[in-house]
Amino acid sequence: MKIKHIRVTPIAFKDAPLLNASGIHEPYALRSIIEVESDNGFIGLGESYGDAPVLSVLQAMQESLLGLDPFDLNGLRAQVIQTVARLQPGANPGAELAPGSHPSKQVANAYSAFEVAFLDLQARSIGVPLVDLLGGAVRREVPFSAYLFLKYAEHIQSPYKPDRWGEAISPEQVVAQARTMIEENGFQSIKLKAGTLLGPEHEVACMKALKQAFPGIPLRIDPNGNWSLETSIRMAELLGDDLQYYEDPCPGLEGMAELHRRTGLPLATNMVVTDFDEFRRSIALNSVQIVLADHHYWGGLRNTQILSRMCETFGLGVSMHSNSHLGISLMAMTHVAAAVPNLSYACDTHYPWQEADEEVIKGGKLPIRNGCVAITDAPGLGVELDYDQLAKLNDQYLTCGIRQRDDVRQMQKYDPDWKALKPRF
């Protein structure tokens, strides 16, 4: 079996005006859809970032992989390394909140994008679900968490009609957002994105309101490193025992280590431990106690399994990070999470935020029931492309005018004096 054709299709889909540490989401999120077709008719699927530096590498890979055996993952890695070295991709202003699109992660990101498609193709060719290639499922349903955001009712300049979620600025509005998300998806834990322009005290008030509204449901807060060490300590005192874990409140491995030393709270990260070198340094400092894996920038599904084993060796918890994605990424996350015995916490996902009519897989959005996504016995990832939807979202990419995520630039449309500060509070 040899690869005869590869297609990389950039897409854009509507993204809500969600507030975060850098500013606010732009009206459209960018992704790349990868198809790897073999000479015996099977097609493996992948999904990755769609920012220009990432897309340039993925598209440059298309010709170099032709004729490769899809089981030759070492050959794939060699081609990725050669391509990245030749292109030397430039900086990406959106990389702070999407570490996989940082230039230092280009090899891991590009390898992951194609590794998922290669594994999907492998599994389809032998008629088994992808999880079987990862050692088999230790669970058939993978738990995910409700992922809440402070947000505006609609984007500035109204590029399309307001989303169905409405404004979420006050604690009462955040509770209402959580209630809807839980009623629709059955989530059994809650995460709030913090570090926004509304400030730490306001975000802690939102957490207190969530605690009162949903007693017994585990809570997490994620300021994306936008609080200073002293602010993080002060907010930890206000939050007390309300937190299941405290995610990236302050910047840096050293800052997180000092925060844990002074508070004793379990700290989680997707920002200060994003590769194996940072993992080694974190262990030496005792910076974090939970690592939020993300196959998109850890170098694929099998590297995610290696990471989980390292976490087990050093007594760390494991969960999964997310940014704006569609169903192919969700199923890749689900298959690898199903094969990780020591998955300690429900995973993150932005999936409920994506519009129902903007999915690229057949049958529309995947169901989340009782807070879980299930794997099936269908070959590979278990999903198929809807080519009409793919064409629609590609057209949207061509016309939306966004080529790299830049939440700072978007916030400056609301406040021209807005600057990227870290930490802000």
Automatic annotation (TrEMBL):
<dbReference type="Pfam" id="PF13378">
    <property type="entry name" value="MR_MLE_C"/>
</dbReference>
<dbReference type="InterPro" id="IPR029017">
    <property type="entry name" value="Enolase-like_N"/>
</dbReference>
<feature type="domain" description="Mandelate racemase/muconate lactonizing enzyme C-terminal">
    <location>
        <begin position="171"/>
        <end position="266"/>
    </location>
</feature>
<dbReference type="InterPro" id="IPR034598">
    <property type="entry name" value="GlucD-like"/>
</dbReference>
<dbReference type="InterPro" id="IPR013342">
    <property type="entry name" value="Mandelate_racemase_C"/>
</dbReference>
<protein>
    <recommendedName>
        <fullName>glucarate dehydratase</fullName>
        <ecNumber>4.2.1.40</ecNumber>
    </recommendedName>
</protein>
<feature type="active site" description="Proton acceptor">
    <location>
        <position position="321"/>
    </location>
</feature>
<dbReference type="InterPro" id="IPR013341">
    <property type="entry name" value="Mandelate_racemase_N_dom"/>
</dbReference>
<keyword id="KW-0460">Magnesium</keyword>
<comment type="pathway">
    <text>Carbohydrate acid metabolism; D-glucarate degradation; 2,5-dioxopentanoate from D-glucarate: step 1/2.</text>
</comment>
<dbReference type="GO" id="GO:0008872">
    <property type="term" value="F:glucarate dehydratase activity"/>
</dbReference>
<keyword id="KW-0479">Metal-binding</keyword>
<keyword id="KW-0456">Lyase</keyword>
<dbReference type="GO" id="GO:0046872">
    <property type="term" value="F:metal ion binding"/>
</dbReference>
<comment type="similarity">
    <text>Belongs to the mandelate racemase/muconate lactonizing enzyme family. GlucD subfamily.</text>
</comment>
<dbReference type="InterPro" id="IPR029065">
    <property type="entry name" value="Enolase_C-like"/>
</dbReference>
<dbReference type="InterPro" id="IPR036849">
    <property type="entry name" value="Enolase-like_C_sf"/>
</dbReference>
<dbReference type="Pfam" id="PF02746">
    <property type="entry name" value="MR_MLE_N"/>
</dbReference>
<dbReference type="InterPro" id="IPR034593">
    <property type="entry name" value="DgoD-like"/>
</dbReference>
<feature type="active site" description="Proton acceptor">
    <location>
        <position position="193"/>
    </location>
</feature>
